[in-house]
Design brief:
37% helix; EC 5.6.2.1; 22 helices; topoisomerase; TOPRIM_TopoIII; Topoisomerase I, domain 2; 5 domains; Rossmann fold; 711 residues; Topoisomerase I, domain 3; DNA-binding; alpha+beta; metal-binding; six-stranded antiparallel barrel; globular
């Protein structure tokens, strides 16, 4: 009897797999499947809870590495080891036992390099060796696709290469994060800096991009410029036009007016000399990758990139959309075929009706050669009922409709508009007016109609005839040059993806183009969330601003490779080589070590130029917050990842978490708990739903919820 054990990445994924078969038994740690055609002896599905296993921290190797000291750098263990993640011991033990009993193991984690990392890191820590391993590789959690995937399991050759790639990425990021964060923090603290910096290979250049935009805005000097604007009155309506002059010097504009014998605000006559009309056709947008979907959702609904990914994950687990973490905008003929078969059902779900222009695949959307691991985001074969649609949250409905509309748009007619340019002469001075008129909405009728902007309203031109006389009034229009605008979160995703355009080095431009900029499709939103959590940036009205702490970071790393996307580009290019079997993990980690050595040598001199500024944060994480409620002689301190009593060496074990039920506990909350044993009602805790509660300190100095206390 062959015992098959399948590892899913998380419980929801395991549940989706199990529902494609017949379930025999469900337990807290695994699901047992009944024997069937795919699994003649049945199978067991177990799961991680995200990362069951993580890299050990410095102090796990050597206790003295817990303290931040310059003379200990670089911190590079001889061998990098893993440990079970905090709070996940029980599930790890269950997985380990199942792995030991298995005859065949199946990696059914997410189909990307991190999915490979999760499976093999767990396997390595269980100590299980020599068992055959197969890989599930699917793009949808629909029952048919799951069954088909398990019937056609792949070898683990590619999976092992991806594991090497992921582990190289994980270890090198650990090395840079641990060493650079300590190096820059300690050198700046010598200069009076009273906080700490967290530095990362991808997060730091991302903050630097935002800082560069901040500097552009800060250094921008607005200047006036002058144009001649005409307001024309034809029989069929009014319109505006501009003479082809734009000068900083108002006298030059006045000179042109004088040359043509024109005066401001006089009633004059103009002649329509020329009318150019062109019919233009706009094709429907490409199918969505994750980043294009994040960008559109941010522009349309102000959703954060992280919010879009979470919503997409929910829709994926509800089997309504294909795999979300894709960087591809194309599908293969196989997906196109099922989309065509479902066209009417999709239209009904979106509450639209149109006759497809063509049912043949178009290379703009359907191109197998452009599809590697994952195809573009499209709806699955599962078309939701009206009841299921009504059960979706507003975010889920909006995102699903966007995916549906973009997919249907490839069958719809082009958007057609007429662009008109009128040249109106006043005393032989030509004025140009440009307008557009919608002829046919085409694919745009599938999407919500946006509110027209002021410019779009002004772009309407009346029907005029060549040679027609029109009333004219002219004036010298004064405008000011405008600074660049801060990035929105959606634009930041695009900027991270296309930042190669900002580089001067040709080689860097090419590499950044090849690897698609900073981060990956799967990680960009979490990078933005990380730099928000680190308080390097803040978001107001969807605009992204660098904070004083972010400026401090950027001034410290300026001129180093940590501020440049080229470092991460070169790393990503080599990581991809490892994934293809063309590069070596050992070579990569050796180069990372050399980079850190260079950083340790050069930073002490370069950091002398940095002006230390206050970041508005509390002084260091070990500054006293309140008297310890237990021992009274110690003080509760901020220990960076948690709060603890300063008398811990003398045996006082009082600690408080930094986060509780999804909410950050601030210094003030901890102070109130220590002094008054109770807080006011606080909002923003997360369970199955968001809830509010007061916090109290029990007799064992543990924080508990008090739902009885009224707000």
């Amino acid at each position: 009897m062959t015992r098959v054990v399948i590892l899913a990445e998380k419980p929801s994924q395991a549940k989706a797999y199990a529902e494609a078969f017949t379930i025999q038994e469900k337990t807290k740690t695994h699901i047992q499947l009944k024997p069937d055609e795919t699994f003649p002896n049945g199978a067991t599905i177990t799961w991680g809870v995200g990362h069951l296993v993580e890299l050990k921290e410095p102090h796990d190797y050597k206790p003295e590495w817990k303290r931040w000291k310059l003379d200990q750098l670089p911190i590079v263990p001889d061998r990098f080891l893993e440990k079970v993640s905090k709070g996940k011991w029980e599930q790890f033990q269950a997985v380990k036992k199942l792995f030991q009993q298995a005859d065949v193991l199946v990696n059914a984690a997410d189909v990307d390099r991190e999915g490979s990392n999760i499976f093999y890191s767990i396997l390595r820590l269980t100590g299980v060796k020599g068992k055959p391993i197969q890989r599930l590789w699917i793009n949808s959690l629909e029952k048919d696709e799951v069954r088909k995937g398990f019937k056609n399991l792949q070898s683990n050759d590619k999976d092992l290469r991806l594991f090497d790639e992921a582990k190289a990425r994980q270890i090198s990021d650990w090395m840079v994060g641990i060493n650079a964060s300590r190096l820059f923090t300690l050198l700046l603290q010598k200069k009076g800096f009273s906080s700490y910096l967290s530095i990362g290979r991808v997060q730091s250049p991302t903050v630097y991009l935002i800082y560069q935009r901040h500097k552009e805005i800060e250094n921008f000097v607005s200047e006036p410029f002058y144009q001649i604007e005409g307001l024309f009155q034809a029989e069929t309506g009014a319109y505006k036009g501009l003479a082809e002059i734009k000068e900083k010097d108002k006298a030059k504009v006045q000179e042109l007016m004088d040359k043509h014998g024109l005066k401001e605000k006089e009633d004059l006559t103009g002649i329509v000399e020329k009318i150019d009309q062109k019919t233009k056709y706009q094709k429907s947008p490409k199918l969505h990758s994750l980043s294009t979907l994040q960008s559109v959702a941010n522009r349309r609904w102000k959703y954060t990139p992280s919010q879009v990914l979470k919503t997409m994950q929910k829709l994926y687990e509800k089997r309504l959309v294909s795999y979300p973490r894709t960087d591809c905008n194309f599908i293969t003929e196989s997906e196109f075929s099922y989309v065509v078969n479902n066209l009417n059902a999709y239209q009904k779900a979106l509450n639209v009706s149109f006759t497809p222009v063509s049912l043949k695949p178009n290379k703009r959307f359907v191109n197998s050669s452009k599809v590697q691991e994952h195809y573009a985001i499209i709806p699955t074969k599962t078309v939701p009922t009206e009841k299921k649609l009504n059960g979706l949250s507003r975010e889920e409905r909006n995102i699903y409709n966007e995916v549906l509309a973009t997919t249907l748009a490839m069958f719809h007619a082009d958007y057609v508009y007429e662009e008109t340019v009128i040249f109106t002469h006043v005393h032989d001075l030509p004025f140009k007016s440009t307008g557009r008129r919608e002829v046919k909405r085409g694919w745009k009728e599938l999407f919500p109609k946006p509110t027209p902007s002021k410019q779009e309203k002004e772009a309407f031109l009346p029907n005029v005839q060549k040679g027609e006389e029109v009333g004219a009034r002219l004036h010298i229009k004064e405008s000011m040059t405008l600074p660049p605008k801060p990035y929105t979160e959606g634009q930041l995703i695009n900027m991270m993806k296309t930042c190669g355009k900002l580089m001067n080095d040709e080689e860097d431009v090419e590499i950044l183009k090849e690897v698609e900029g900073l981060g990956t499709e799967a990680t960009r939103s979490s990078i933005i969330e990380t730099i928000k959590a680190q308080k390097y940036i803040e978001v107001n009205n969807n605009n992204v601003y660098v904070t004083d702490k972010g400026i401090m970071l950027c001034e410290a790393i300026e001129g180093t490779l940590l501020s440049s996307p080229s470092l991460t580009a070169k790393w990503e290019a080599y990581l991809k080589k490892i994934g293809r079997g063309e590069g070596s993990k050992q070579v990569f980690l050796k180069q990372t070590g050399q980079f850190i050595e260079k950083l340790i040598q050069e930073t002490p001199d370069s950091i002398q130029q940095v002006n230390v500024r206050t970041t508005g944060e509390k002084k260091k994480w070990n500054e006293p917050i309140a008297k310890c409620p237990a021992c009274a002689s110690g003080s509760i301190m901020d220990r960076y990842k948690f709060y603890a009593c300063s008398n811990y060496k003398e045996g006082c074990k009082v600690t408080f978490p930094k986060r509780l039920a999804g909410k950050t506990l601030t210094n003030n909350m901890i102070k109130t708990l220590c002094e008054k044993k109770r807080t006011r009602v606080l909002k923003g805790f997360k369970g199955k739903k968001t809830f509010s509660t007061a916090l109290t300190l029990d007799e064992n100095y543990k924080i508990t919820f008090d739902f009885k206390k009224k707000a």
